[in-house]
Structure formats: C-alpha cells, structure tokens
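RECORD CONTENTS
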Amino acid sequence: MRAWQSALGKESLTMSVNLSGKQLTQSDLIRQIENTLRQTGLDPTWLQLEITESVVMENAELATNTLLQLRKLEFILSIDDFALVIPL
C-alpha cells in the first residue's frame, strides 16, 4: 500500500484488507500490525480492516477487544462491508 501511494504520488489512496477469524484470534496480531506500520511508514487511516459478522459472533469478547485495540491505532473498521464507528 505504501509503495503504491509513493509510486502514484497519492497519499490519500486507501485499501480494504480482510482479517480472517484465525488472524483475529492471534495473540500477537496487534504487535504484528504495529511493527508493519512502523516498518512501512503507512498511516493506518488509509487502511480499512474488514471482518465478517460470523467472526464477531464466534468469539464476541475477543473480537470486541481486538477491534477496540485496532481502533485506538486509528484504523477504519468494517463488518461485512458496513463501516463500524468506534470512538477513539
């Protein structure tokens, strides 16, 4: 994503990325994402992270906790293509 922004000269270019249920349950997901952001210099507001409703329903407590952490990193979140607004 960062390479495309640089190549096109468009900082406002955004991308949606699907998070699988397996990824959402990884204990180091937030750390991995923070490391990737640091390494690439990508602003998290240019990424929309998408999960399916079924992932949330499978483990609502874990999903909620992870989504809150991701929101604190300023990601745009969506569930099944619907924007999820979580205040910072």
Notes: The chain has a mean pLDDT of 83.
